[in-house]
Design a protein that fits this description.
Distance between the termini of chain B: 37 Å
Order of helices and strands of chain B: EEEHEEHEHHHEHEHEEHH
Helix content of chain B: 25-40%
Strand order of the largest sheet of chain B: 6-7-8-3-9-10
Largest interface: A-B, 16 and 27 residues
Number of helices of chain B: 9
Radius of gyration of chain A: 21 Å
Number of helices of chain A: 9
Low-confidence stretches of chain A: none
Low-confidence stretches of chain B: none
Structural class of chain B: alpha/beta
Number of domains of chain A: 1
Radius of gyration of chain B: 18 Å
Distance between the termini of chain A: 29 Å
Oligomer: heterodimer
Number of strands of chain B: 10
Shape of chain A: elongated
Shape of chain B: globular
Helix content of chain A: over 70%
């Protein structure tokens, strides 16, 4: 409970005594590259293979001849939009970006760079963390869109290559009974997950104390806690919005 | 001038600072000395506000910093420059960007004005043609000098140095010491240096405060430090053979 209270105070710090707006613009753009653009390759690889595997495994489980083949792509579509793209990618995102944020801030803490900012009269939490959180909120939904597209495309390629479903059946399955709210839901989830991953990782890194060993521990803890928070939020959002 | 009154600070029930008072004058190089673990760095961090004292007051030219609201604290902190033990340079920025950093965030100067000021400060600490180098590409002594340049770039009124000589060879140490003293006198600022290096004490100690087990047990100047009758101070000052032979 103490950690949760400290985390909430930390979030409050991000929005108090901010520097001038122009200071943040450049920082946010830099963080968008570091957090978002640099994650595209990993997200693309993971999403494409998850989509491909989902198609093969769904086909493997649909053994009844009464179930039309296009159901495979229906399952892959809903699975991807509702869960794989926003939630599984959030775990990947926590592993890559969360550990990077915690490691960077933890190193800055133990090498007194954060103290240097404080002594200058700069709100170090706001200056260092707010751009990361905003950049994550901007870029993660875009990564989810890319992941969703590539997962479905990966499923298409795997289905066509193995012959478990034809291209036409796959496209038909994607279109039939499509509920656009699932995309809205995925975007809501991606915003929440981006905030959780960036802020929890930053919190863990920002309050690191000790040496190199503690920076490593902070990175691990950032990933673990972010994943737990993402899974809890995933359940709560599903319960509330679906 | 910085005045501290009855500063107390504890961590986890262990009292590190036990009622320290003193006055650090403008234009002088004020040293806080003592053995490792006596609370020198904790006192410095209490003075700059990185630690909140449990009791006591810190006054910056009469302004009560300890009990100030956030705006006054920010105002005072923007008059502070600090050289950290490891330099605390931003790893991802070049030397020029490091020194320019306070100007970028805290002022509305034009790029040309900022560059002029940065070059002036780098030149003042005897560093030229290193603007584009990264902190990882320069030596420990150069990092300290870049740290000093960053500390004075915003026309700081107060300069704090935490173990400026740690990890440096004797010649570079003296160079850094002299630079700190010259800057203090040239810009008429209040400087506080935390050190346990006796060379620094003898080179630049205009005012010296000696801490022992969280207490201030002696204060004076470089001229009378060798003639004290305080046992703890003598044990510290004459710890090495050279100093003992000089006394003999």
């Amino acid at each position: 409970m103490k950690s949760i209270g400290k985390y909430i105070i930390f979030i409050g710090l991000l929005f108090s005594n901010r520097e001038k707006f122009s200071t943040y613009v450049k920082l946010i753009l830099e963080e968008c590259v570091s957090i978002g653009v640099n994650s595209i390759v990993l997200v693309a690889i993971v999403a494409t293979f998850i989509g491909a595997v989902s198609t093969i495994q769904t086909a493997y489980n649909l053994v009844s001849p009464f179930i039309p083949r296009y159901v495979i792509s229906q399952v892959v579509r809903d699975l991807t939009i509702l869960e794989l793209a926003p939630s599984i990618m959030a775990i990947v995102f926590a592993g890559k970006v969360g550990s990077h944020i915690a490691g960077e801030l933890g190193t800055m803490r133990i090498t007194e760079q954060i103290d240097a900012l404080e002594v200058m009269g700069i709100n170090s939490a706001s200056y260092l963390v707010l751009p990361k959180v905003i950049a994550a909120i901007i870029t993660y939904p875009l990564l989810v869109i890319i992941a969703g597209y590539l997962a479905i495309a990966g499923g298409y390629m795997a289905g066509a290559a193995t012959g478990v479903i034809t291209g036409a059946e796959y496209i038909y399955g994607l279109r039939v009974d499509f509920n656009p709210f699932t995309v809205t839901f995925a975007m809501i989830k991606s915003l929440v997950f981006a905030f959780l991953v960036a802020s929890i990782s930053a919190y863990k890194g920002f309050y690191t104390s000790g040496g190199a060993l503690e920076v490593g521990k902070a990175s691990t803890s950032a990933v673990t806690n972010s994943c737990i928070a993402v899974l809890c939020a995933d359940y709560l959002l599903a319960q509330l919005l679906l | 001038m910085i005045e501290i009154k009855n500063i107390h600070k504890s961590f986890d029930g262990k009292e590190i600072l036990k009622g320290i008072s003193g006055v650090f004058d403008k234009g002088k190089t004020n040293l806080i000395i003592g053995a490792s673990g006596t609370g020198k760095s904790v006192l410095l961090k209490c003075i700059v506000g990185l630690f909140q004292p449990d009791d006591g007051d810190v006054f910056y030219d009469g302004r009560d910093f300890t009990h100030a609201d956030r705006n006054l604290k920010i105002e005072v902190r923007r008059e502070i420059g600090m050289l950290f033990q490891g330099g605390a340079l931003f790893d991802s920025k070049t030397v020029e960007q490091n020194v320019m950093f306070p100007l970028n965030v805290l002022t509305n100067m034009s790029q040309e004005e900022k560059l002029d000021r940065v070059n002036f400060c780098l030149k003042r600490v005897d560093l030229e043609n290193v603007n584009d180098q990264m902190p990882s590409e320069i030596s420990g002594g150069m990092k300290k000098r870049v740290g000093i340049a960053r500390a004075i770039v915003n026309n700081s009124q107060y300069l704090f140095c935490d173990e400026p000589n740690s990890g440096l060879d004797p010649q570079t140490s003296i160079r850094i010491d002299n630079l700190i003293q010259e800057i203090t006198q040239e810009f008429d600022i209040t400087t506080i240096v935390v050190t346990h290096d006796m060379n620094s004490v003898m080179e630049i100690g205009d005012y010296i405060m000696f801490l022992h087990q969280g207490h201030k047990v002696w204060e004076g100047t470089e001229n009378n430090i060798a003639h004290s009758d305080v046992q703890e101070l003598n044990d510290f000052v004459f710890a090495n053979k050279l100093m003992r032979s000089l006394r003999a």
